[in-house]
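Entry 12.
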Amino acid sequence: MTATHGPIECVKSIQDKHPDYFANMGFNHRIPVAQSRPPIEYGGQEATRPLDAVSAQKSTCYVTAVQLVDRLVLMDDFSITNLESDALCSLTHKSDCVWNQDFDGKGKGRWRTLETISFEDWSPLVDELPNQPTIAIPLPIESIKSN
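Predicted 3D structure (tokens):
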């Protein structure tokens, strides 16, 4: 789902810049994910149990939790075992999809994402992605792999 790429990339960027912050996963606040209206309407819904694979793939909240825990979002993350994980479910409910009207508009910028992760003992960490990488830069054919 196109709208979930931005939140995944924002979390990954924060993890890459601040790896020490993620050692104990001590999040005590919401994790707001600000996007324009279309991604919020399509992928911003809360992930509630029981969660199926298709709903999880469309859920910004779920993929944010997976990236935080696994540091990578793969197809196996949408298996029944992961969908029923208490740890992922708990973290999923900390994400909060927020519609930022300033992000609405024409052009590729409407896929902008701003994500904030707060910890118990540190200042919030913020990352912004001005555009979805899958939209901004098309993949070259050499990068596409098949099984």
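Annotation: The chain has seven helices and four strands. The mean pLDDT is 80.
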